[in-house]
Backbone:
């Protein structure tokens, strides 16, 4: 797929991108400072975790609103169900850099799965620990996720593992299906759309489309994996069947007929 | 309980055919578990549980035992070693 024409380097949109990244750099240390402050105030671990996550959610919301204010894009969030999500396995496609930021801005009590490098990084590890985020590859990962879900947390997963190159060429790994079937908690699909595509893996920060980017975040109705697989078959086949179902689900949601 | 290598392969093949969408022709010892048979680490846990039932014996293993397993042949080697250790 060819990229959309990009804005001139000295255009307003590239300036907006520069301002946005600068703002991110300015705000990014804030959670770490807040974590240090929260660490010295006497309170329970659960309370500290709740406050840290609320702070992260608020900062993410502020950031996505700021970028819209700067003119980088226009975005809207569609709720297919009015229920406030709790204890869901949040599964989203991954077309652009900011997917996780949008989701954390609009879904409460998100538990992210951080890369091991971030868990060791001196600037991020205390925030991750206080927020109670999980680390990819940690021992007893599935059991820990079940525990988090039972507490009403929403565990965020990107089954593609990395940003995709095309909306309809989705390659989902089985990790999300493994969790959904083993835990038996509901899956909450979030469909991320970005037209024209922007902030992709191969693009530099100033390669912003000349046309105003429209972003749509659709928070869909949740469902259980067991409703969409043959539960009499071996679990290994259920993982595969549910992964294929999720790919079809997202493709249907992302197809041009559905998007309009 | 002692098993020959052929018996171990036969038990593994049977478990794989039941649990995964693979064809019997794919089950050469050189077949790579992930690249050729699409069997990942979580699948391996289910495979070993099924194998325990197949050989009617509880394999005493640690995750590190399977760290270097890449092919079906490697898996057979590890199972053979674990069974011999149990004797």
Residues:
């Amino acid at each position: 797929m060819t990229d959309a024409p990009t804005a001139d380097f000295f255009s307003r949109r590239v300036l907006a991108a520069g301002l946005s990244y600068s703002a991110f750099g300015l705000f990014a240390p804030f959670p770490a400072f807040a974590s240090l402050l929260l660490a010295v105030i006497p309170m329970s671990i659960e309370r500290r975790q709740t406050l840290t996550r609320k702070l992260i959610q608020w900062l993410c919301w502020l950031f996505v609103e700021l970028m819209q204010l700067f003119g980088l894009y226009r975005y809207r969030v569609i709720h297919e169900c009015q229920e406030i999500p709790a204890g869901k396995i949040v599964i989203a496609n991954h077309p652009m850099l900011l997917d996780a930021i949008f989701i954390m801005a609009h879904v409460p009590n998100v538990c992210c799965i951080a890369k091991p490098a971030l868990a060791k990084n001196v600037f991020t590890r205390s925030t991750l620990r206080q927020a109670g985020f999980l680390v990819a590859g940690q021992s007893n990962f599935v059991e820990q996720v079940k525990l988090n879900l039972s507490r009403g947390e929403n565990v965020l997963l990107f089954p593609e593992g990395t940003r995709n190159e095309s909306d309809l060429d989705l390659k989902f790994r089985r990790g999300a299906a493994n969790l959904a079937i083993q835990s038996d908690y509901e899956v909450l699909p979030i469909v991320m759309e970005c037209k024209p595509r922007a902030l992709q893996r191969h693009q530099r920060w100033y390669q912003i489309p000349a046309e105003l980017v429209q972003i749509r975040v659709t928070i869909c109705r949740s469902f259980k994996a067991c409703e969409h697989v043959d539960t009499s078959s071996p679990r290994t086949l259920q993982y595969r069947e549910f992964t294929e179902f999720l790919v079809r689900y997202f493709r249907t949601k992302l197809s041009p007929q559905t998007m309009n | 309980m002692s098993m020959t290598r052929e018996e171990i392969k036969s038990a593994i093949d049977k478990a794989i055919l039941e649990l995964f969408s693979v064809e019997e022709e794919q089950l050469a010892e050189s077949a790579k578990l992930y690249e050729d048979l699409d069997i990942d680490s979580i699948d391996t846990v289910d495979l070993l549980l099924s194998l325990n039932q197949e050989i009617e014996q509880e394999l005493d293993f640690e995750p590190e035992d399977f760290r270097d397993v890449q092919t079906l042949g490697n898996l057979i080697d590890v199972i053979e070693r674990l069974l011999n250790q149990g004797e």
